[in-house]
């Protein structure tokens, strides 16, 4: 099968738009030739569009795909040919995305992700919306059939019934815009202050409008712009968010300008993460993320399951994905808090020294001593960090919590654990502390990503590491025994009984 013919003109226009810098250079250079500027600009536009159109047509003509019973086969390449056979058993997600123009044209981009992949395995740009939905449904059906055949069951022909789990209300969407301020965006905008503030102060006619006045006003304005931009992005990104469950997979759709749909196989979920920033915690709200074993664009294997809802509702939905019991956290010892006080106080003194150096040697006069307030706030910051740390050992899961500004509670089933690492820095050893990292196939890294039990008693860390490792082996043996009993029961049952059992289990 081929891509949609509309992918040719759409791809040509988008390629030409990405090469807009050529038009800018050609137009600027042609200003030296009187009367030739518009003609040169039109010629460049026509040339770029023609070349982009030819390339897109060749790409469309040489791109073909076929969905077989076991694989997704793709042939592509304009200058060099590439043939891929993607086993359906390894397919993690089949996601679709459509921006406003693509929705108007009735086309969509389809991405195929595989377990363990470091990038998107295949991308179909672009097919019709009906074809995108057909591919998603067919891949899901073929995967279920292959799984049931391995288990000796009979697959129902119809797509499993879809049950809505969560739909974002307008109130929750508005709250999401308020609480989801992206501090990275704020820091980006704040870089403008030292550049623009002196210029504003020099141009001001009122001598009272000095740099000391211009800088705070500009900073307030930048904060407001950053908050509004972050809120607008979150609202547009999660507009119309809906989460449902169909058989053994979660399905989601979201987006205002760019519309995204996709699936999250429950069998591939490695952990669930409850996230609560400071504002969300104050009003009793949280978000839910599921981590899978594959690659998710822009999120390193993490996919938002609930952008924002009441915390009790988020916990209930988390248990729908990964059933776990009540959690009682065990905090690090109090001497870990002392360690944080010393660390934060040293950072505050360093920043105070830098501020004094700028004041003393640059001629830029300001109240540098206010930076000492950071040293005074060190005990408060240390207490808040310590208070939000913790871990819990449950019957089938280990739960780890960390973070103050954005607190994350990660629930990991034992059978999903890849490695358990116990580490002790030279500063931790002086206080008899250690950190235990519980790594899964969906974790963001052994050193920088969650989940981990930070700064706990060294003896308790060793006990936690051994407990998680032992329960990992026990859970794997239990799951293997359960699968063996199911296969034996199916073999004893007749074909009719297996069919009825399969239908009933759905």
Keywords:
506 residues; 6-stranded antiparallel beta sheet; 7-stranded antiparallel beta sheet; alpha+beta
Descriptive report:
Among the domains are: 7-61; 170-238, no CATH class; 334-383. Helices cover 48% and strands 25% of the residues. It has 17 helices and 19 strands. The strands form 4 sheets. It has a 7-stranded antiparallel beta sheet. A 6-stranded antiparallel beta sheet has the order 13-12-11-16-15-14. Strand 1 (64-67) and strand 2 (71-76) form a beta hairpin. Helix 7 (183-190) packs antiparallel against helix 9 (211-238) and helix 12 runs antiparallel to helix 14 (378-387). The model is unreliable at 295-301 and 495-506 (pLDDT under 50).
Task: Write a brief structural summary.
The chain is of the alpha+beta class and 506 residues long. The C terminus is likely disordered.
Poorly predicted runs of 5 or more residues: 295-301, 495-506
Helix content: 40-55%
| Percentage of residues in strands | 25-35%
Number of helices: 17
Shape, per Cα inertia axes: globular
- In total, how many beta strands? 19
**What class, by secondary structure content?**
alpha+beta
Report mean pLDDT, rounded to a whole number.
82
Report how far the terminal alpha carbons are from each other: 33 Å
The radius of gyration over CA amounts to 28 Å
Task: Please summarize the sheet with the most strands.
Answer: 7 strands, antiparallel
Strand order of the largest sheet: 6-5-4-10-9-8-7
